[in-house]
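Model it.
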Amino acid sequence: MANYTTEKKFMVAEGEEGEVYFFIEAKKEQPQTPIIIYDGNDHALFRRNGDQNIILDYIHPSVRDHLRKVSEVIIVEMILENIKDSYIAQMQHVEKIPLDWQKIGLKSWEELMLSKEEQK
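Modeled.
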């Protein structure tokens, strides 16, 4: 059965030629046919291998439109400030990712920002 973990600390960056990089914490196993499933909203699902599904938690609104247009991204796995591995992951664009984010304990970007404002 597939496991779901949440990648809370990741960074998305755009290269000089429009390529998209996802910088994530390094993982133990090697990826096998990595793919990111994305519906253009708050979260994406990174299927790193058959048993490892990583929720990319809270895609920033400023990069969503660009992510909707790319067919692949470059995943860079980091250990502190060092690159452990990098590889290409295909993007699969869908209408809606078939997960109930609230059951996993995730909120929308707007709900997250609102709750942070309320904490101030």
